[in-house]
From TrEMBL:
<protein>
    <recommendedName>
        <fullName>Thyrotropin-releasing hormone receptor</fullName>
    </recommendedName>
</protein>
<feature type="transmembrane region" description="Helical">
    <location>
        <begin position="106"/>
        <end position="128"/>
    </location>
</feature>
<keyword id="KW-0807">Transducer</keyword>
<feature type="transmembrane region" description="Helical">
    <location>
        <begin position="187"/>
        <end position="214"/>
    </location>
</feature>
<dbReference type="GO" id="GO:0004997">
    <property type="term" value="F:thyrotropin-releasing hormone receptor activity"/>
</dbReference>
<feature type="transmembrane region" description="Helical">
    <location>
        <begin position="148"/>
        <end position="167"/>
    </location>
</feature>
<feature type="region of interest" description="Disordered">
    <location>
        <begin position="227"/>
        <end position="263"/>
    </location>
</feature>
<keyword id="KW-0472">Membrane</keyword>
<comment type="similarity">
    <text>Belongs to the G-protein coupled receptor 1 family.</text>
</comment>
<dbReference type="GO" id="GO:0007200">
    <property type="term" value="P:phospholipase C-activating G protein-coupled receptor signaling pathway"/>
</dbReference>
<keyword id="KW-0675">Receptor</keyword>
<keyword id="KW-1133">Transmembrane helix</keyword>
<dbReference type="GO" id="GO:0016020">
    <property type="term" value="C:membrane"/>
</dbReference>
<dbReference type="Pfam" id="PF00001">
    <property type="entry name" value="7tm_1"/>
</dbReference>
<keyword id="KW-0297">G-protein coupled receptor</keyword>
<feature type="transmembrane region" description="Helical">
    <location>
        <begin position="267"/>
        <end position="284"/>
    </location>
</feature>
<dbReference type="InterPro" id="IPR017452">
    <property type="entry name" value="GPCR_Rhodpsn_7TM"/>
</dbReference>
Length: 401
C-alpha cells in the first residue's frame, strides 16, 4: 500500500477514498447529507450537555464531570473530523492548507483518545462509588474528578503531538491537494496498533470486568450501606427514642429512601454501560478495518463500507446526549429547563411588569378603605413577615429555573 493511498490519510478518521468515488454523485450526496446531519445533531447535543452541567448546581457530580469531558472530546471529533469531511467531499480537494492539515489531524485524534480515556475514568469512578462506598467519600469527589480530567487531557495532548511529524499536504496524480502521511508504512503501523491497544482494547477489557463487579453488587446482592445514610439512620433512631413515637410519613419515607437510592444508582449505571457498549460497537468496524488492512497486501477499500465505518465513528460522538436524555431523568429535566429558559425569563419579566402596572394604577378608594380597615398592630407585624417569606421563595424559584 503506497503512502498516497487515501486510506492512509489521517483526515476524516483515515476513511476517505476519493480516487474511487470522485465521480459518484450519488455517493457524495448521501455522504454529505448523513455526515452533516449527524454532526449538527451531535454538536448541539454535546453543547447542551456541557451547559446543563455548568448551569445546574445539582448536576455538578463527579460522574457528570467525566461526561462533560466526554462531550468536549466528542465535539472535537465532530468538528475536526466530520465537518472537514463534508468540505472535502464538496470541494474535491484539501482546502485548509498545511497548517490546517496538521491542526485538524491533531485535534481529531486528540478527541478520539480523550473520549476513550473519559469513558475509562467514569467506569472506574462508578466501580468505586458502588463497590467501595466508604472509600468513595474521599475518592469520588468533584475536585478529584477535575484533577483526573486535567491529567487525562494533558496525557492525550502530549501523546497526540506525534501526529505533527507524520502528516503533510501533497499533490496526487490527479493534481488534487491531499492531507496525508509523509512517512513509510512501517512507521505508522506501530502507531495504529498502539492506539488500538491503549484506547480501545484496554478500556473495553477494564469496563467488562468493572461492570461485571458492579452488576453483581447492584443486582445480585444488597448494596453496601453508604456512610451518610448510616449516619442519617442513627440520627433518626435517636430522635425516635427521644420522641417515643414515629409518624407514618416518616416510616414511609424511611422505607422508600433505600429503594430510591438503589434505583437511581441502577439507572445511572445502566446509562453508562450503554455508553460503553455503543462505544465498542460503533468503533469496531473502523478498528477492524484498520487492523485487517494492516496485514493484507491489497487493502479492502470499498467506498460504501468506508462510508459506513465513518458514519459509525461520527454517530458514536453524537449519540451520547440522546442516551442521557432517554435514560436519565435528571438530564431530561435539565435539557427541558435549558430549552425553556428563554420562555421562563420572558414570563418572569411579563409578570413583573404586570405587577408593577397594577400597583401604579391602584384605585385610591380602595387605598382609603384599606386604611380604615387596618388590622391591629400585632397582626401588622406578622403579615409582612409571611409576605416577605413568600417573596423570597418566589425569587429563589425563578433564580433556580
Amino acid at each position: 500500500m503506497e503512502n498516497s493511498s487515501k486510506f492512509d490519510s489521517p483526515t476524516n478518521v483515515s476513511l476517505a477514498n476519493k480516487d474511487l468515488v470522485s465521480s459518484m454523485i450519488e455517493y457524495k450526496a448521501i455522504s454529505v447529507f448523513l455526515v452533516l446531519l449527524i454532526c449538527v445533531i451531535g454538536i448541539i447535543g454535546n453543547i447542551m450537555v456541557v451547559l446543563v452541567v455548568f448551569i445546574t448546581r445539582d448536576m455538578r457530580t463527579p460522574t457528570n464531570c467525566y461526561l462533560v469531558s466526554l462531550a468536549v472530546a466528542d465535539l472535537m471529533v465532530l468538528v475536526a473530523a466530520g465537518l472537514p469531511n463534508v468540505s472535502d467531499s464538496l470541494a474535491g480537494t484539501w482546502i485548509y492548507g498545511h497548517a490546517g492539515c496538521l491542526g485538524i489531524t491533531y485535534f481529531q485524534y486528540l478527541g478520539i483518545n480523550a473520549s476513550s480515556c473519559s469513558i475509562t475514568a467514569f467506569t472506574v469512578e462508578r466501580y468505586i462509588a458502588i463497590c467501595h462506598p466508604m472509600k468513595a467519600q474521599t475518592v469520588c469527589t468533584v475536585s478529584r474528578a477535575k484533577r483526573i480530567i486535567a491529567i487525562v487531557w494533558f496525557f492525550t495532548c502530549i501523546y497526540c503531538m506525534l501526529w505533527f511529524f507524520l502528516v503533510d499536504i501533497q499533490v496526487n496524480k490527479n493534481l488534487q491537494v491531499e492531507c496525508g502521511y509523509k512517512v513509510s508504512r512501517n512507521l505508522y503501523l506501530p502507531i495504529y496498533f498502539t492506539d488500538f491497544a491503549i484506547f480501545y482494547v484496554i478500556p473495553l477489557f477494564l469496563a467488562t470486568i468493572l461492570y461485571g463487579l458492579i452488576g453483581r453488587i447492584l443486582f445480585l446482592s444488597p448494596i453496601p450501606n453508604h456512610p451518610e445514610s448510616t449516619t442519617e439512620r442513627l440520627r433518626e433512631k435517636s430522635n425516635k427514642e427521644k420522641n417515643g413515637t414515629e409518624s407514618e410519613s416518616n416510616k414511609t419515607n424511611n422505607r422508600n429512601r433505600p429503594k430510591g437510592a438503589l434505583s437511581s444508582r441502577k439507572q445511572v449505571t445502566k446509562m453508562l454501560a450503554v455508553v460503553v457498549v455503543l462505544f465498542a460497537l460503533l468503533w469496531m468496524p473502523y478498528r477492524t478495518l484498520v487492523l485487517v488492512n494492516s496485514f493484507v497486501e491489497n487493502p479492502y477499500l470499498d467506498p460504501w463500507f468506508l462510508l459506513f465505518c465513518r458514519i459509525c465513528v461520527y454517530a458514536n460522538s453524537a449519540i451520547n446526549p440522546v442516551i442521557y436524555n432517554l435514560m436519565s431523568q435528571k438530564f431530561r429535566t435539565a435539557f427541558k429547563r435549558l430549552c425553556k429558559c428563554g420562555q421562563v425569563e420572558t414570563q418572569r419579566r411579563n409578570t413583573y411588569m404586570t405587577t408593577s402596572s397594577y400597583s401604579m394604577v391602584k384605585d385610591p378608594t380602595n387605598v382609603k378603605s384599606e386604611k380604615k380597615e387596618k388590622p391591629p398592630l400585632e397582626n401588622q407585624n406578622i403579615v409582612p413577615k409571611n409576605s416577605d417569606k413568600m417573596k423570597v421563595e418566589g425569587e429563589l424559584y425563578y433564580s433556580v429555573v
